[in-house]
From TrEMBL:
Residues where N6-(pyridoxal phosphate)lysine is found: 261
Other observations noted: May also have succinyldiaminopimelate aminotransferase activity, thus carrying out the corresponding step in lysine biosynthesis.
Record's subcellular location: Cytoplasm
Summary of subunit composition and partner proteins: Homodimer.
Record's keyword annotation contains Iron: no
Residues where N(2)-acetyl-L-ornithine binds: 150, 289
Keywords per UniProt: Amino-acid biosynthesis, Aminotransferase, Arginine biosynthesis, Cytoplasm, Pyridoxal phosphate, Transferase
This protein's record includes keyword Protein transport: no
Family per record: Belongs to the class-III pyridoxal-phosphate-dependent aminotransferase family. ArgD subfamily.
UniProt-recorded Gene Ontology molecular function terms: diaminobutyrate-2-oxoglutarate transaminase activity; identical protein binding; N2-acetyl-L-ornithine:2-oxoglutarate 5-aminotransferase activity; pyridoxal phosphate binding
Protein name in the entry: Acetylornithine aminotransferase
Gene of this entry: astC
Binding site for pyridoxal 5'-phosphate: 114-115, 147, 232-235, 290
EC number(s) per entry: 2.6.1.11
């Protein structure tokens, strides 16, 4: 037995300071430590209540501890947890059927995260290109300020240098172009390109919605040069924009779509969706994962999918979006020295910080948290809101009240 362990290990007191002692410092979390939550309500170690407008970075779209999801997970936990990938299971087959029936896709590959889903998508694109063209088509085109994951491959494809510094040499044949720039896309996407990967709505890059003409142009260019078009819907998919997946609202169909985050409402799962024609290139043994598509994750994801993919549910997302956008536009009008614009789609929205407050999105986030509202940032110049899709009108009103209070305190201090 490890001499460092004792019988109180599961109950000993831990605090935010414990993080600094024992966790690899890849994050700088808030000082408060959440201990329980329900819906959009959350409480920390001191019993303080917060209204959560982060949903775990667009993950808990049905809210924390949603009873329907809890019941599904509990039922499956008492039935079958895990099998090696030499076997299949009923929940994953049902999930694959549901996703392919709800989308353009014929085939699904399941993994554990958005990074893994994008890794699979990019590997598939390279595999297809090798099979069809040999070594003549290696190049991947992505967008500046994009985010596709933290593996060495996906972080290299993501267009943010701050995430790749110190990890060189990076995988080759990856180029980045400005988002929503049609002329740049035309110049970059040539015959040597095997894949173009894009977020229909950029999340980490500043809550930037794709221009419909831009996404249509990417589709046309990929068709012209024989490249695979990948839509990364890890953050903007699963009802977040008011459609089940954002591509459906744009009317532009990709060859590969990736999903994660809200797919499991907090239970780790990712999915790569694609066509029969492309899927055949990932034959037995060419790719895999130990936990991907396990019965627990698949059961939860199917429950989430069936809940979100209902006309009334998606209509309510659009209704809530309109109300929240109206409140945010009111903040821009009333605090022009702090906020300059609202952008985004559905319930993935950003408040762009005005010039006098440039670089201070984190200050706004902390001020809101001090007043009991959890919000996100997307870089240092955008405040990001991604509440659970079940957010009520009263909760939107309350978030508006708290942001106003927080901003008033900030501006008074300034």
């Amino acid at each position: 037995m490890n001499a460092k362990l004792d019988s109180t290990v599961t109950t000993r007191p831990v605090t935010r300071a414990t993080f600094d002692e024992v966790i690899v410092p890849t994050y700088a979390p808030a000082q408060m430590v959440p201990v329980r939550a329900a819906g959009l309500d959350l409480w920390d170690q001191n019993g303080k209540h917060y209204l959560d407008f982060t949903s775990g970075i667009a993950v808990a779209s049905l809210g924390h501890c949603n009873p329907i999801v809890v019941e599904a997970l509990t039922r499956q936990a008492n039935t079958l947890w895990h099998l090696g990938n030499g076997y299949t299971n009923e929940p994953v087959l049902r999930l694959a059927l549901a996703l392919t029936e709800a989308t353009f896709a014929d085939r699904a590959f399941f993994c554990n995260s958005g990074a893994e889903a994008n890794e699979a998508a990019l590997k598939l694109a390279r595999k297809v290109a090798h099979a069809k063209y040999g070594d003549k088509k290696p190049r991947i085109v992505s967008c500046l300020n994009s985010f596709h994951g933290r593996t060495l491959f996906t972080v290299s494809v993501g267009g943010q240098a701050k995430y790749t510094e110190g990890f060189e040499p990076l995988p080759p044949s990856i180029d980045h172009i400005p988002y929503n720039d049609i002329e740049a896309a035309k110049a970059a996407i040539g015959d040597d390109v095997c894949a173009v990967i894009v977020e229909p709505v950029q999340g980490e890059g500043g809550v930037m919605p794709g221009n419909p003409d831009y996404l249509k142009t990417l589709r046309e260019l990929c068709d012209k040069v024989g490249a695979v078009l990948i839509f990364d819907e890890v953050q903007c998919g699963m009802g977040r924009t008011g459609s089940l997946f954002a591509y459906q609202g744009y009317g532009v169909t990709p060859d590969i779509l990736t999903s994660a985050k809200a797919l499991g409402n907090g239970y780790p799962i990712g999915a790569m969706l694609t066509t029969d024609e492309l899927a055949k290139h990932l034959a037995v043994g060419t790719h895999g994962t130990t936990y991907g598509g396990n019965p627990l994750a698949a059961t939860v994801a199917l429950t989430v999918l069936e809940t979100i993919n209902q006309p009334a549910f998606l209509a309510r997302v659009k209704e809530a979006s309109e109300k929240l956008i109206g409140k945010l536009e009111g903040l821009v009008r009333d605090f022009p020295q702090v906020f300059s614009a609202v952008r985004g789609a559905g319930l993935l929205l950003g408040l762009v910080v005005a010039e006098p407050f440039k670089g201070r999105s984190k200050d706004i986030q902390r001020a809101a948290e001090a007043q009991g509202l959890m919000i996100l940032i997307a870089g240092m110049d955008v405040v990001r809101l991604a509440p659970a899709l079940i957010v009520s009108d009263a909760q939107i009103d309350e978030a508006d009240r708290i942001i106003r209070l927080a901003v008033a305190e900030l501006t008074k201090a300034a």
